[in-house]
Each structure stands twice: as structure tokens, then as C-alpha cells.
Design brief:
alpha+beta; Multidrug efflux transporter AcrB transmembrane fold; Alpha-Beta Plaits; elongated
Amino acid sequence: MPETRSRTRPDAERRARQGVAQLICGPRTKWLVLVLWLIVLVLAAPLAQKLGDVQDNTTSSWVPRSAESTRVLDAAAGFRPETMPMVVVYARENGPLTGADRARIADGVSEIRQLRSHWIRGDETRGPVFDKTGDTAEQAQAAQVYVPLTMNNETWNDLPDAVEDVREQVADGGRDTDGLDVYITGPAGVSADFAEAFADIDSTLLLAAGAVVVVALLITYRSPILLFVPLISVFVSLYGAQALIYLLAEHAGLTVNGQSAGILTVLVFGAGTDYALLLVARYREELRRHEDRHEAMALALHRAGPAVLASGATVVLSMLVLLAAEMNSTRGLGPVAAIGVAVGLLAMLSLFPALLVICGRWLFWPVIPHVGSSDPAEHGMWARMGRRIAGRPRMTWVATSLALAVLALGLIQLRAAGISNEDAFIDKPDSVTGQEVQAEYFPAGSGDPMVVVAEKARADDVRRVVEGTSGVQRGTVGTPPGTRAEHDGQVLFEATLSDPSDSRAAKDTVERVRDAVHAVPDADARVGGGTATLLDMDKATVHDDKLVIPLVLLVVLIVLGVLLRAVVAPLLLIGTVIVSFSAALGISALVFRHLFDFPGESTDFPLFVFVFLVALGIDYNIFLTTRIREEAARQGTRQGVLTGLAATGAVITSAGLVLAGTFAVLGTIPMVAFVEIGFAVALGVLLDTFIVRSILVTSLFLDAGAKVWWPHPLSRADDPSPPADDPSPSGDDSSPSGV
């Protein structure tokens, strides 16, 4: 057997040097690779800057096309332009409105009616409407004014400016109005605050993710120079991905919104840096064995490339599974994320190696790997941990599994039923405060009415049914001003809900109204509006959870099976992923309840956390198990497990810290949903890195031995137990111990 290795190993090395790897990092071709990527950068940079211009944050970009609320939105376009109401609320808490207050309100309304900027339809302003606090109109303590905005893709970016324009018109005109509070709220006011939360999200995440990567790489490489090479490669790949996505959005109908654009940045930084860490570790290993850095890189690519490629393919395929989702926003995220990771993978397997060999060994200063220098991994922390686990592998994996299962019990605290506007922001904005004040004096659902479209012949019956449904404010069912009376044989009318439009009670009212109007014969009645949209989004997300999560697991299982050419090992790895995901969600739920005091999670929270954790977390299992399989073919599975853990431990730990850190920067966005996703994914990655991969997977493979490779012939090979006191993880000084 040793003689066979000595004959075949040089052949493999020769094939590597003559293959694709040599084309990437050859003495001359490395310059060609660099020039090609410089051309990509020059062409991509201007297009990448335009990505924000093609983002679509309108309602239709989020809600399923088949949803009833979407069909109402389409039908309503025949009656009026799509509108979003802005509501100006005036309130005097300690008494009725004064004469000066009423004069100020009248002046403000008059000024608003003159507005035509930022899609404000000032001439259709309605109000003021006074509350009925006392027995007479003079005793009113509050008033509200409705200001409609025409909705289109540009409106989203203009919303903060539209709010500011209206705020200027309702500002104190110099009268004595102390004690009169003025708020701008309603769907447009709240959406403006959402838009401001997303404002500059790309640059914020870019800077935050870049800072995290710089610190992590500096700690990992201990070189102030080397860290710039992966950073340059990541930035180039991000620009390339953004440019390609812009072209697809502009010319091929790809949907991009603020959410997918933000996640794109995090994914490219996190995944790209992971791949860089893996390649550098293997390259450094080969530099200790080869004088020629071009040869060392060719061998590093030959040996680590398949694992990197498999990891990237797993992420890309998992993201593409999102195309099966009903939610437009989720479905749109799939290709955006897949393109980002694919471009990042391409850059890290071509531009990054070329830059490394162009710069030479001095990049690693002050710890430069010289030929013949020892590999610290052979006697490091992970080698010692592996030998300790090898003493009692079964007890180790059973105890670890039980501990993770206990942590998963926190899932009973998970409340992924949606987040109201009141709870969506880290800090309560003015619009949410105004919404609360509005609900104190007026029907809670005013400003965001329910919309009903029905056949004209049965319109009266539908109106009566809606009016008589519990949860609909009496006397509010009617045709809104500025609306055509009839279109294509149908009529449109609105109704005000008694409960806040984003509440569970309001959604239940929409369910009741739908059941009632659907029962009216030949009415073809459909119910939409803001509350109905939220309800349809909740239903679509529940559907996506049940469909996408199993599909992602299946994709990952197939990729692992093809990569490892086994059945048992992929099944074990999938099991560890599920346990890890459950534990991460359980811990997160407890933290959200009892530490952060969050009221709940968004309905898509479990799906996003699962997809990111499985697609990205499985990378570390791929890095570990491919190295174990490589070593198992030479020295047996159990000894190969120890070699694999010792060789990959440090780099996988570094990669996990980088990925966790990049997802944690989502916490810089002042919105609860992003903070929750960032925290849960970062926590899950750390669990994968320090517990699942290093302890659970290692002990499972040590316990199962060669059987993990069934039905591959490796499963039938002799597999002696590793000596517990072996000081070297491989027992063979000639074997590579890098990643």
C-alpha cells in the first residue's frame, strides 16, 4: 500500500499542475486572470452603483401574485391609481381643541391641498375629521387629515421626502398652539420610516461587514498585509454580483428589494471570506512543502478546490430553492443570493489565487511559511481535542445531542406570528406614536381601509354583508372620493376596521369578511387592502416553510451524497444540521423573550434562519468531511477523523467567526426582524463551528468508523482505532496537514 501511494501521488500532483489550477496561477497566466478581473471591475462598478435604482419595494414585489389582496390591487387599478394614505393626526391631550388649534389645522389642510411634489395628491386631501370625545363638536380633542399618495416604484424612495413636505405645511404657523401634538402616520407615514431604516443600507452593511472581516482576518492571519488580498477579492466579487443583478433586474424582470440587496452584501462577504480562509490555509500548507509558490498554489487548488466548489454549489442550489416560494420577496431573494455566492465563488477560485501568487510569500509577513517549517496544527488544540474525543466517542455524541436537544426546548417560546408596526422598530418612530394616538381618538383601523371589489349587480348585497360583519366599523362602508363609480362591470368600496390594521384581530376580521362575501352568489367579491395583504403574506410564509425547508434539506443531502459518494455520512450530517438549527432557534427565542424583550418574530424568521444556517453552516461539515475522506483512504477512517479535525480546526473556527460576525452586522439596521435574523444566524454558525462540527460530527464519525462511507468500498476497509496518545494527528509526516 505505501508503494502504491508513492506511485500515484506524484501522478495526481502532475495532473493538478497541468490542469485548470495551473491556468489560474501559472507564472504567466496569473497576469491574464488579473487583467480579466480588472476589466470586470471597470465594467461592473458603474452598473453596481445603479442597483438601488431598480429596487422594487412596492407591495406587489412582496406579496404572492396569486393572493386575493394582489388581485384586488390589480382590479383597483381600473378605478384609481394605486394609492397609499398618509394621515396627519392633531391631538390636544389635556382638553378640547382651541380656536387657535382649529385655525392651524385649517391652514395646514389648505397648504397640503396645494402640494403636487413627491407623488402627493394634495387636491384629493380629505378632512379634517374631528373625533367625538364629547357631546358636541366643540369638545373634540383630535382631528385627522387624509393625504393620498400615488404609489409606484419611485414612491418608496420618495416617501421620507413626502412626509417632510407635509410636515413643513403643518408646522406651527406662529400661533399660540402650545400643547397641540402633530403626527404624520398612516400607511405612508409608517412606510416612510421603513424606507429611512433601509436608507443607505448597502453602504452601512458594506462598512460594517468590511470592518468585521478586517478584524477577523488580522487575528487569523496575524499579518497586516495578507488581509487586503481577500478584501480586494470580495469587493470585486460584490461589484460583479451587483452589476449582474442590476442588468437582470433592468432587462430580465428580476425582482430586487431592500431586503435582498442588504442580504446580498452580507452573503458575499461572509461566504467569500470563508472560501479565502480555506484556500489560504491549504496554500500555506503547500508552501511548507514546495519551493515554487505556483506549484504550491496549484496543489492547494487541486486539493481544497473540490470542497470549496461543493460548498459554494450547496449555497447556490439552496438559494435557488427559494424560487419555489409563494412570497415574491422570498422568491426574489433566491436568484439574488445565488448570483452573489456564485460570483464570489468564481472570484475566490480565480482572482484570489492569482493575487496570492503574484504577491509571493512576503504577504504572510511576519509569519512567513518556509519550506520544511513545521505545521502547528499537528500538535495544536484541535489535535488534542480529537484525541480526547477518541477515548469515548459514543458518550460524547450522546451527551452533546442531549444538550442541544435541551437547548431546542426554547422553541416553545418562539412566536413567529408576525410583528406589528408598533413592534417592528428598535426605537419607536414618530409614525408609530401617531398611530397609537390615532387609535385613541378614532377607529383603530382608520387610515388603512379594507378594500372590496365586487360585481355591480350584487354590490348592494356585498355592502350589507360587509357592514354586518363583526370587526367592521359601522357606517364606514362606501365608495371613496376620487374613485370611478364602475369599471368593467365591477364596483369598489372601502370599509374601516375597528382594530389596528396590523393586528391579529384585524386579520381575523378580514377572514370573516372574506368568508361572508365569498358566500354571496355571483358577486365574485374579493377583499384586499393593507390588512388583507399582511394576512396573505402570513399564509404564504407558512406555505413556504412547509415546502422550502424540506426541499433545502433534500438538495443538501444530494450534494453531500455526490461529494462523499456515501449514504450514511450525509444522513448523519443532515441530522446534526437539524439539531443545530433547532438549538439555535431555541436559544434565540429565549434571548428575544427574556433579554431583548422582543414581542415576537416575523413569520418568515424560521425560514430565513434555516436557509442561511443550513446552506452556509453545511460548509464547515463539507470542509471537515472531505478532508476526513481524503485521509481515510490512506490511513483508515478513525485516524482520518483525527487528522481532518486537527488540520481543519483552526481555519474552520476562523471562518465561523467571520461568518457569524458578518451576519451580526444585520443588527446595525434599526428593525427588529433584521436584528433577529442576524442574531439567530450568527448564533447558529457559532454552534456549528464550536459544538456541532468539532464535537458532534467528530464523535459520530469516530464511533461509526468506516461504516460512515457505506456503500462506498471505504466502508469495507480495515479501520483500527486511533492510538489515544499519538502525538501526531496523521501519524505520517509526509501527509498534508493543512485544510
